[in-house]
Design goal:
The chain is mainly α. It is 54% helix and 10% strand.
Length: 196
């Protein structure tokens, strides 16, 4: 086993959050109530119908991401935000490429920074906090565009799951899934049920 350095992965949550908002804004633009999506009642103008349809169909999280994404996509912000995030995403991918070229076949890493959360703990926090905390370890693989899989390996002292993730180079899915299957058979993780 080798220890490796992925120095740019610490920025993956920020990069993901920005690029996700840009993607949401871009993808949700088509849901105008004319060809796609919910259409609200009749209005004095097409613009008013668009606004009312989106207000009724999109929840607060989606509306927030659309607003943030459109802000980042403005010509005066595009270079500072979107282009910078894409540069950092390339650096994250380059970190992984360097690891694969060094002879590493798979990476083993944690899935979360702590054991699992009880359902009642999870539902008490807002979605953004949950996402940032839970995705911290898994976003680098997404930003690098590499395959990854998580496997639960044991229970913590609180009786909650602890998982590991395996990551592989692009097109390394066969070895990734074979190793995950071997790990799953080896640790014999018990079946879990939701605890309130």
């Amino acid at each position: 086993m080798l220890l490796v350095s992925l120095p740019h992965t610490q920025h993956s949550i920020a990069v993901y959050s920005l690029l996700n908002a840009v993607e949401v804004a871009s993808n949700m633009a088509r849901y105008d109530g004319v060809e796609f999506g919910h259409r609200s009642g009749e209005h004095a103008s097409t613009e008013a119908m668009f606004a009312d349809s989106r207000r009724a169909a999109f929840n607060e999280v989606v509306r927030g991401r659309v607003l943030a994404g459109n802000y980042f996509l403005l010509r005066r912000h595009y270079e500072d935000y979107v282009m910078q995030a894409m540069r950092i995403r390339r650096l994250i991918a380059a970190d992984f490429e360097r690891i694969w070229r060094s002879g590493c076949d798979l990476l083993l890493a944690p899935v979360t920074l702590s054991d699992g959360h009880r359902y009642s703990e999870f539902t008490q926090r807002d979605s953004r906090t949950n996402t940032a905390a839970l995705d911290y370890c898994t976003q680098p693989a997404n930003m690098a565009g590499i395959p990854a899989v998580t496997v639960p390996v044991r229970l913590s002292s609180r009786g909650l799951p602890v998982s590991l993730q395996l990551m592989a180079p692009m097109f390394g899915e066969q070895q990734l899934l074979q190793t995950a299957h071997w790990l799953e058979r080896t640790v014999r993780f018990p079946r879990l049920y939701v605890i309130d």
